[in-house]
Amino acid sequence: MAKKESTFLNMLITLLVITLVSATALGYVYELTKEPIELAKQNKNLEAVKQVVPEFDNDLNESKCQLTTDEGVTLDAYHAKMGDSIVGTAVKTFTNNGFSGEVWLMVGFTPDGSIYNISVLEHQETPGLGTKMSDPSFKDQFMNKNPETFKLRVKKDGGDVDAITAATVSSRAFCDAVERAHRALTGCVDGTTSATTSSQASNDTEEQADKTLTEGGDK
After folding, report:
1. Quick one: 186 exposed, middle or buried, by C-beta within 10 A (0-12, 13-18, 19+)?
2. How far apart are CA 60 and CA 80, in angstroms?
């Protein structure tokens, strides 16, 4: 009996030691990789900024600031300058309304508030459907458009945006993220261009029934 208790105690001690060593090793690896991962993320953001604003000559890291939306959400923004003049502002924005979750974009604006270009940073949309939000055939319709007059809603919801075929949910999400960036930049709050309008709500019910008819369900 005493031998069994001793063996059990040894097993517990061994497991405890293994757990402590593993936890220490994981913590060390995390600290070791945290900075390189953060640096890679920053570089990815800066490369995206370069794609969505006109030519500039300033240090983007020094011009980085934060904007707050009417929802109380904070977004990173970068002012691109040529000399002392701001030639564009890039806003890192997101939406939670993607078909498969979050969608992150970098949206570039000219000083008059028009959209200069858009870069898709992250998404998990359906391959061959929602992923087409990265295609120029979809993105280019936003270029040189001012959200003050260009309605950032798909045409099915009374807006000016041509939705991706069989990916209306992803298209709406894209519009929502762009609109969030614009609202944060301008400080304007327009109740008719909120993330979900009454017309969108009614159409969403219809689309839920149709999702299974398309590959991946992205309707």
Report:
1. middle
2. 7
Which residues are CB-contacts of 68 (< 8 A; sequence separation ≥ 6)? 74, 75, 184
Q: Which of 144, 130, 137 is nearest to 172 (CA)?
A: 130
Kindly give the interhelix angle for 198-210 and 168-186, rounded to the nearest 10 degrees: 150
The tens digit of pLDDT for each residue in 90-121 reads: 999 999 999 999 999 999 999 999 999 999 99
Give per-residue pLDDT as tens, 148-177: 999 999 999 999 999 999 999 999 999 999
By residue range, what is the domain housing residue 91? 49-190
**Alpha-carbon distance values, 144 to 68, 107, 193, 214 (Å):** 24, 12, 19, 32
* Count of domains observed in the chain: 1
- For 118, the token pair is 């858009």
Residue 144 lies in a domain: yes
Cα angle for residues 120, 126, 131 (degrees, 5° grid)? 30
pTM of the full structure:
0.73
Residue 74 within any structural domain of the chain: yes
- Is-contact 108 153, C-beta < 8 A? no
Tell me if 183 is assigned to some domain. Answer: yes
Write the single-letter amino acid at 175. Answer: C
